[in-house]
Description:
Chain A has helices spanning 11-39, 44-56, 59-84, 92-109, 116-143, 147-169, 192-195, 209-226, 228-238, 240-245, 250-277, 288-298, 306-327, 332-346, 349-355. By secondary structure, chain A is mostly helical.
Amino acid sequence: MIIMKFNLDSPLGKAIRTLLLQVISIIFGLLVGAIAIKLSGRSVVDAYTALYNGAFVGRTSLELTILNAIPLVFTGLSIALGFRAGLFNIGAEGQLILGGIAATWVGTTLNVGPVFTTALALMAAAAAGLIWAFPAAWLRAKKGAHEVITTLMLSYIALHLMNFVRKNWLYDPQSTTESSITVNENAKLVLINKVLPFFELGNTRVHTGVLIAIGVVVVMWFFLYKTIWGFEVRIVGDNTSAASASGVSVSRTIILSLCLGGVLAGLGGGVQLLGLYHRISVDSFVGLGFTGFFIALLAQNQPLGMIPAAIFFGALRAGALNMQFQANVPMSLTEFLQGILILFIAVPVLGKSLKMFKAIPDESE
Amino acid sequence: MDIIQQLIDPTMFASTIRLAVPIAYAALGAMFCERAGIINIGLEGQLLTASFFSVIATYFSGDPIIGVFGGILSASLVSLLFGALTIGLNGNQIIVGTGVNIAVTGLFGFLSFMLFNSPGVTPTVTGIKAISIPYLSQIPWIGEALFVHTPTVFLLPIVVGLCYLLLYRTPIGLRIRVSGDNPIVDEAAGVNVLYVRYIAVILSGVLTGLGGVNLALEGSKFYQDSLVAGRGFIGLAANIFGGWTPIGGPLISLVFGFARSLMFRVQGLNIPQEFFFMLPYALTLIVMVGAATRSEAPLALGENFIRKE
């Protein structure tokens, strides 16, 4: 009976099972959303049509989906790296903001020609993310202070620091919205139609951050699965005491994974600022870090899974914006759905029920 | 000179107490959860829930008393949801807590838009006014500092006492402490650890309910997304630094209350106000450094308990 021999514990089987779980979760989430819309007296069909159109129909929608997805790839990776080491880097939000602040500072004060200015600003962003992650990493590794509280506190501090930057330090006297000054042209990330002229993309808002995001995903995959450090991160997360017994420095691995997570989130903040915002405004960066938590869960902490997960949520955000205009259903619904989906994914009941498929008797041997 | 004068001002003292109270209720909630072995990040969401529904219930009934019950009941229901997903269905405590926080924030944004067409903000309601205790409030300095407050402030010392008695002087308190340190012992004694943990989590719901009532009905008189602003997490930190005790956490909360009250005091100084907004969070970080060197954390903290049939 060769047909029955499909093994759900094989890598392919696992991938299919994971995918199935995510699809069921998302359908469930959309159902909860439908109930909420229905209860509030709006038309579910209208709302979800607007959601779909806003996410996928037409060039502007698709571009918005991609633009929304870019920073989420970085924060998703950042938080996933923590998860892999058994840590909860909930404060990726703060590290992202610090990256954005550093990129603004470099991008407004330094001008050493195209590409170089951008590169320096991105490096500063990554360094700022690292600096913001380090206290939490060190406290966790050396003092055992819970990283959830420390990274969150650093996030709140980062938020107020950002407000200080846009209102005081780098404030724009001409701005009526209390925004910071704009970075110079050489610091901005090049638009993607400039570097890929042969695709004839025409006018677009999509910037080269999308290429950086893909590159970082590949690097993180390589790091986790092909390097000793990545291996150490994974075994510390799987079994801390066994890792420690076999000579892996647990505290070094904790510091490494949280700090590298800071670098990723900081870089994401830099990319978002230099690619899209170009200056800090009132609502810059809001929620990108916390959404990364959801992206990491949805991607099951797999680096390659970040791209589809980020695109899914990017589409949801883009669609929700349209839904708010067209169907009078507020964007907060996506946040609610995100929370419900996290709860759904967190509970392993569904994972167990999917494993029941495995119980097919293997008669060929 | 001016600063010192402000620091010994009775209103400064009063605002320290007032601003410590919601954190103290959160710290007590955190205390019960953690003593039972559960890290409840969802405290933040529970405070938010109580704030929202105490305002909503007051808005639609016109009676703040209904609002108080609405706040406590709704926060208890959210804590029950947290409990069901972690204790009942064995979900990871941190992930479920984060999910709860994100879901309730989104839900209230959604509901406030649907009800009032303003995402994340509700209209102002009557609320609950401060009470002056007769005679005592007439005492110079002390009266103004200690005896003119809103009801949940006066309630706090009583609640602290009750929590102390419950934890150390009743069988259920003993069961809570054992289920956080060594849940197998509870089971060996014929006690269902899961029920004990449910009770602890629901207690945190009631306590954060009071904290939310303090923030919304007695404080701002309306709900907005940023009303809680991390007080749930600060409560977790206060509980840890307070040594996981019913008295330590609320006492540490006073330090946070002081940091917050400074924000409104030093605006005359030439320092951007953002730095004062950072103070409570920076203080929490410092507290976490100090607390981390302590080692009296419940032994089974953060571990789900799976019953053997």
